[in-house]
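User: NAD(P)-binding protein. Structure?
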Amino acid sequence: MSSKKIVVVFGATGNQGGSVIKTLLEEPSTNSQFEVRGVTRDASKPAAVALAGKGVSFVKADLDDKSSLTHALKGAYAVFALTSWGEIMDKEREIQQGKNVADVAKEQNVQHLIWSSLPYVSKISGGKFTKVLHFDSKAIAEEYIDTIGVPATHIIPGGFYNYLLYFLKPTSPGAKSYKFCAPFPVTTKLPVFSVNEDTGKYVKAILLNREKVLGKQVYIAENHYSMIDIVKTLKEVGGLDVVAEEINDATYRKNLAAAGAPDFFIEDMSDNMKFMQSYGYFTEKQAEEGRELVSQHLETLEEWVAKAPEVAALKGLPVEGIKEGPNIY
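Assistant: Predicted structure:
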């Protein structure tokens, strides 16, 4: 029997979970201590099969099903858990999924739950912005985790680099020139990072510094960038023809509606953008404290843009598996 401690990773084949597993396997400081158990709904997926070949064991579980979670967390020392708003787009269901993980983690005597959370917009804004469902749902689950006494650390990820491309709008149908359109001033700074490369580095540092971070939030960002900074990098490093343009809330809503977004999602994103402008996603000081914990190189925006297939696709270059660049509109 292995003497290693079991770390259960949800979203094992996704952005955050995949990064966690990659780091735990590759870093000697974690590979020597921890055995990785991935949670998936389909262990036959190519990504899962590839990870199994590297020593990851897999268990099938569903966040809506407590009995399956009990099986997944049995004997676990630590758990990295997250929910996927993009899959369910249901605030109450997402909250319940987080509570399910918390309840089972407590029942199974998990020693360290690492929860992927987000800012509690309704509370931070004093009730001014109450429609950012996909932030509040994770934050409410975070509060529940702490309330029932599960030993936990909460990560607060900044925006993902690849999500920045969702703000790009072609200047005309089919054009390979773009406007970076966002409903806030071009000088507004947002915290962002490479989700695939660097989530795992933070989780590794949290696992190795348990006593230091229990009960705390760890903020994840390589840096804070303004729209001007982002566009400059996309032009100079990525070779894109792009300009920054501030749009008003009405135009932002119209763009989302034209893309087929449901009304509640439009309200969510509109309030989200207003919150970031008024209160900030999180502070540069909070981001710096997170980086100090990691003490490893984080992939810069420039490094990501230089290699990102999504950026190449936006220039019209053929990229395997990508027909075109992401476009929120």
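The mean pLDDT is 94. Residues 91-107 form the longest helix (17 residues).
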